[in-house]
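#struct-help
A.M.: can someone run this one for me? Single chain, 78 residues.
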Amino acid sequence: MAKGRRTDLPTAALVMEMKETEGRSENEISKLTGVPAGTVHNILSRAHGWDEIAEGEVFKRHRQEQNKALEQANRTLA
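D.P.: on it. Structure tokens below:
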């Protein structure tokens, strides 16, 4: 299998936050973020090394930042 470019941590954190806080489907997340559907699936299922990445402190910090940004956007749109 050909190796593509690894998704950056802030984008991967956004993928996880959109699923967990907004309950969006993998297809919705893919369309909204521009991340390929297969990559979205891998991130959410913690496959291909995403399990180790998701447990890292930097990734956790990015998730917190993405969560705050999503909450702010939701308040603005409400």
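A.M.: thanks! The chain is about 70% helix and 0% strand.
D.P.: also worth noting: Residues 15 and 29 are 6 Å apart (CA to CA).
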